[in-house]
Design goal:
By secondary structure, the chain is α+β, with helices and mostly antiparallel strands. It has a domain of 115 residues: Glucose Permease (Domain IIA) (Distorted Sandwich), CATH 2.70.70.10. Helix content is 31%, strand content 22%. The protein is built from 4 helices and 10 strands. It is elongated. The termini are far apart.
Length: 243
């Protein structure tokens, strides 16, 4: 009996200790509900990498958002606008100057003299030197070939040479003298020579036009000896190239 009583007392003691501990680990209905609700509210779905579908990203679908991208897009647009304006201006200039073709055109003027007439036998009007006009106007049709009056080196070849418009200047040494000849008002884009190039007497250098300060198609022809202007038609005649 004594042993039974001892075992009973021990069992009661164990029960008394175990039950509160168990009770503390079992959530009440209210606590359980709250935890379940939290679990629902915070629930997240997990996508396994192997099941994910990678959508291609097309950069063209996005607009520039950073300052650098905006600046780059503005610069590109401005460059495109400038290029378009330049192309239109060039086309307009060519239309204004008239058309020309090198097909069937002699690359060297006939003759063998040291000095040649730059436009052959075309009609000319010689102007008095001085004032705003320093040469002779040699009138002809638009696109008439223009030739170097003598052998020399190209000093100027420009589509915008002051009032001469499309112009060429050649430096020569003739009879021991420094001579330069100028050819103005050519057609836009018709120059056949570049700065620094050496040309022969009678070599094709361009085509007659109406560019710069000009009224009607003609060649403005100037001659300078030692830097001083001389009457160009008389100079041509004196050197065996009658105009």
């Amino acid at each position: 009996m004594r042993s039974i009583a001892i075992f009973g007392a021990v069992g009661a003691l164990v029960a008394a200790v175990a039950l509160p501990a168990y009770a503390s680990t079992t959530p009440t209905t209210e606590a359980a509900t709250t935890l379940q609700q939290i679990a629902v509210d915070d629930a997240q779905s997990l996508v396994v990498a192997s099941e994910a579908t990678a959508a291609p990203i097309n950069r063209g679908n996005y607009s520039a958002t950073t300052p650098e991208e905006i600046a780059q897009k503005k610069a590109a647009a401005a460059a495109a606008a400038r290029a378009e304006a330049a192309a239109k201006a060039a086309a307009s200039s060519r239309n204004t100057g008239g058309g020309y073709s090198t097909a069937g055109v002699a690359l060297v003027a006939p003759g063998s003299g040291e000095v040649r007439n730059p436009v052959g036998g075309s009609y000319y009007v010689s102007r008095t030197l001085g004032g705003s006009h320093n040469g002779a106007d040699m009138v002809g049709d638009s696109g008439t070939p223009i030739y170097a009056a003598a052998a020399g080196k190209i000093r100027i070849s420009s589509d915008s040479y002051f009032g001469y418009g499309v112009g060429v200047v050649i430096d020569h040494v003739l009879g021991g003298q420094q001579v330069s000849t100028l050819y103005g008002h050519m057609i836009y884009g018709s120059r056949q020579v570049q700065v620094g190039q050496t040309v022969q007497a009678g070599q094709l250098i361009g085509f007659m036009g109406n560019t710069g300060q000009s009224r009607g198609e003609h060649l403005h022809f100037e001659v300078r000896i030692g830097g001083s202007l001389v009457e160009p038609i008389g100079w041509l005649n004196a050197n065996g190239a009658p105009a």
